[in-house]
Amino acid sequence: MIFTGSIKVPAPRAAVFEKLNDPQFFASCVSGVENLEELSPTHYKAELATRIAYIRFRFEISVEIIEQVAPERVVAKAEGKPIGAVGRLSSVSSVTLSDVDGGTEATYEIDLSLAGKLGSIGQPVLKSKAREMEREFSANLIAAFAQEEATV
What we know:
Shape: globular
Mean pLDDT: 90
Radius of gyration: 16 Å
């Protein structure tokens, strides 16, 4: 499944790039991320707790930053497995930042695949969950920058 979209962030491009490359900040924008650990400057692991349809999942996720072009582009690869269930989650996510009037536009593409029990849930349910997570991430990202600007 491929998801694309864009988020207008009320901050300069360099600031958005810096924050998106801060694993603690990024994780704070994703609902359900816990126990984030930096293994190296480009490798991280964490747990992600979420509910898909009527099933609760907890994933062990590893993330590798595979491309960084400051302050324009970041590409990350994630691999995960649900704890206590059979399956696998894989994704490659990219974000390209561009200056727009009054801020930054973050254009993203996420190529996501699920196997095992996860893959059997069904495309419409999975797409609905992914869109919900996109909306939450966007709202959290915009709110974080708005709050930061209000304290300046």
